[in-house]
Amino acid sequence: MANFNLENELSKALSLDVPLSKGPIPRWQRKAMEKSPDLSMSSCGNNSTLMNLSVNKSVSKPNASPKKDDWVKRLTPGRNNSTSKSPLHPQGDRFIPNRSAMQFELGHYMLSKNGGEGEENLSPKSSHYKKTMSENLNGDISNFRILAYQNKAPQAPTGHANGLKVLYSSSKNPGSTKKATRHIPQTPDRILDAPEILDDYYLNLIDWSSLNILAVALCGTVFLWNASSGEIQQLLDMPSQDEYVSSVSWLPEGNILAIGTSSAEVQLWDVSAEKKIRTMKSHTSRVPSLSWNTYILSSGSRIGTIHHHDVRVAEHHVGTLENHSQEVCGLRWSLDGRYLASGGNDNLVNVWQSEIGLGQTEAAPLHTFNEHQAAVKALAWCPWQPNILASGGGTADRHIRFWNCNLGSCLNSIDAKSQVCSILWSKEYKEIISGHGFANNELIIWKYPSMTKVCELIGHKSRVLNLAMSPDGATVVSAGADETLRLWNCFAYDPKKKKVSSEITSHRSDIMRSRIR
Questions:
Q1: Which of 214, 217, 232, 385 could form a disulfide with 205 if both were Cys (CB 3.0 to 4.6 A apart)?
Q2: What pLDDT score does 103 carry?
Q3: Which of 331, 328, 344, 307 minimizes the C-alpha distance to 389?
Q4: Three-state secondary structure readout of 240-303
Q5: What is the rounded radius of gyration, in angstroms, for the C-alpha atoms of the chain?
Q6: Dihedrals φ, ψ of 4, to 5°?
Q7: According to CATH, what is the number of the domain 190-492?
């Protein structure tokens, strides 16, 4: 008998069509029994009865074709109850997006307009009424979208001034208070040929007079270029080919031009008469630097001595300054005549008082600055602060430094990244311009005292040897080792400001005349 029982159980287990008589009740049947108490009570006694009942119902009518709903009920039991949940989609698993930014009314209208109730199905009154209501509620929807990130900020009321408008303004405001910067031409206004100009860092070969005449030394010849008329005049030619002109300097008030030569001479020429007035001999080596202080002409030599010449008297040599051990390549009197600045190849900057050295055999400088690490040729005095001196160092230094000669202190220092050959102060703006050699061969305009770059003027193919400024202060000429002279219109003044300043000056002069009377 045991063998028959085992065979019966195996046959029941292997038959797929026969319902299971043992085992736990499926989850969907438990849900159905919880919703229908009668069915759950009957199924508690015998679980197989419900299974046999469903099987018998399907077998009792074999020829009947079941409806679609019956097949759905068989395949997904529990679906007939509207409150029951599908076992394939448990509660709480659905993702519900945030639709707070959606315009459902507008979307419904657009969908109904395109696909639902078309305009052609409505009467003229209904379509007009619907269009009017839509415009009143939603505005012009031709450019609207159903989904939008944000709307534009509303316009400010008329007359409302918001001081923080720059924080959210994305376009240029015509009422902006940004200060317009002046235009500086990046190309030279004119280019002049300077053949055979000496490529020597220590020489000073150009100078611009108060009568608008530019003097240029080209090896052994001095030429004069009249900037007003454009005429070119040859002033002198050295008698020997071995001699050359090493420096030129105009007397600030007249037609007198001082010329230093390689033969240790200092010559004075009357340009209007094209005549040499006198030759002063006191040096024993070439004269690379000259500077005027009224009737006193100071000259620096290659051996480091500085001589004062009184051009009014026959015994012109009236003083000697000795504190440089090498060539004096930079020499500048201050605008008020109180100080003389000298720069040498010994990396020193000396500041001398005006009375020192006149009639004295031994004299000491007022200040000696040794911060530069190369030869100092570029020297310039500030036009609105006569005690401020600017100096520039050579290739090994490349710095521009500012000195307070009343206190003997350094005010500022900036690395120019190139050899500094010359410095000029602007007469119209609080700016300086510097000429550079290795490695950029450019001119740079700096804002003073912040020393921020205003503009870079590029054009020379070799280093800039010297700079000179026109009498009106608007144009700067640069002499390059590429044998060219380039005129830069970099400090052009504003005619409106100039007119206003001239009117103020004339008004003040009228007041002073009335007081004197």
A1: 217
A2: 65
A3: 331
A4: CCCCCEEEEEECCCCCEEEEEECCCEEEEEECCCCEEEEEEECCCCCCCEEEEECCEEEEECCC
A5: 50
A6: -65, -40
A7: 2.130.10.10
Bridge-partner residues for 259, per DSSP? 248, 267
What type of residue sits at position 136? N
How does pLDDT run across 347-386, given as a tens digit for each residue? 999 999 987 656 655 679 999 999 999 999 999 999 999 9
Instruction: Encode 426-451: b = buried (16+ Cβ within 10 Å), e = exposed.
Output: bebbebbbbbbbeebbbbbbbebeee
Find where tokens 């004119």 sit.
Answer: 190
Could you please report the per-residue DSSP string of 43-66? HHH-HHHHHHHHHHHHHH-SS---
N-term to C-term CA, the chain: 156
C-beta of residue 208 within 8 angstroms of C-beta of residue 468: yes
- 248 pLDDT above the threshold of 90: yes
Strand ranges (E), 72-151: none
Q: Phi, psi (5° rounding) for residue 258?
A: -95, 135
Please state whether beta strands 420-425 and 431-436 pair in parallel, antiparallel, or not at all (unpaired).
antiparallel
Question: Domain-by-domain residue ranges, the chain?
Answer: 190-492
Phi then psi dihedrals of residue 452, to 5 deg: -90, 145
Contact 340, 333 (CB under 8 A): yes
Residue the block writes with tokens 């009668």: 38
3-state SS string for 304-333: CEEEEEECCCCCCEEEEEECCCCCEEEEEE
pLDDT tens per residue across span 279-321: 999 999 999 999 999 999 999 999 999 999 999 999 999 999 9
pTM to 2 decimal places: 0.64
Q: How far apart are CA 233 and CA 223, in angstroms?
A: 6
- Please provide the DSSP assignment of 201-243 as one string: TT-B-EEE-TTSEEEEEETTEEEEEETTT--EEEEEE-SSTT-
List the structure tokens of 359: 């009639």
- The answer to whether the beta carbons of residues 327 and 347 sit under 8 Å apart is no
Give the residue among 378, 466, 455, 449 at the shortest CA–CA distance from 414: 449
Residues 6+ apart with CB under 8 A from 256: 250, 268, 269, 270, 271, 277
Average pLDDT of the residues of the chain: 79
Q: What is the pLDDT of residue 363?
A: 79
Residue among 334, 347, 303, 338 nearest 321 (CA): 303
Q: What share of the chain is helix, strand, coil (3-state, %, to 5)?
A: 20, 30, 50
